[in-house]
Predict the structure.
Amino acid sequence: MGWEALGRWGEDAVRIEPLTGGVANDVWSVRVDGHLAVGRLGTRSDADLAWETALLRHLDRAGLTVPVPIPTSDGRLFADGLVVMKYLEGGPPETPADWRRVAATLRELHRLTRGWPQRPGWRSSTDLLHADTGTRIDLGAMPPESVVRCRAAWARLAGRETCVVHGNPTNPSNVRMTADRVALIDWDESHVDVPDLDLVLPDNAAGLDDGAHDVAAQASAAWEAAVCWKDDYAVSRLAQVRAV
């Protein structure tokens, strides 16, 4: 149906302009019921979008600042691949102190989602020790030696408690900060995994000790190599994963 679905949010709902940063989705600023909002149109399944929108509502009720889904006129949280969310003001993190605030927000996310069910169709990093595919990951498309390296990095996370991870918090455009709050946006890569994958932040803002930081950094590099394989960024990230 495409952007015609925006009419489900009211006769006056309109697109305004495209927003940068989206890769897998078409993202625009929109106006709904006279208020600025963000519309994201993609190809995710209804089960996938139900998981994400339920997560965002849970986090909002728990006190985190997130792009809360705005219901359609008949009360649905998405329609025909389109999600409309609250627009959040703010700027990106710029200083070590800013990134420490981001780390604290991520840790609260992790605390609030212990035991959360996996996003439909996704795999965690440790699931991929035995599985070959999950959403955008296809280990069969990677050279066998590269898969061995990635799995060796993920094996160091085995047995740890899992929760929801944001999936891409190191991208400054995914954070909207003001003086009194930190907002995480773009939850398209969120899924259940080991929390330290979210905590490889600039200047080690999460304060991981040397051993924990090494484990997390290696696992994170392996994850991004597998997710993006095989563009230039994926190749560069794989180069950071130690050979076995």
Remarks:
- The radius of gyration is 18 Å.
- The longest helix spans residues 210-228.
- The chain is about 30% helix and 15% strand.
- The helical segments are 46-61, 96-112, 144-155, 210-228, 232-238.
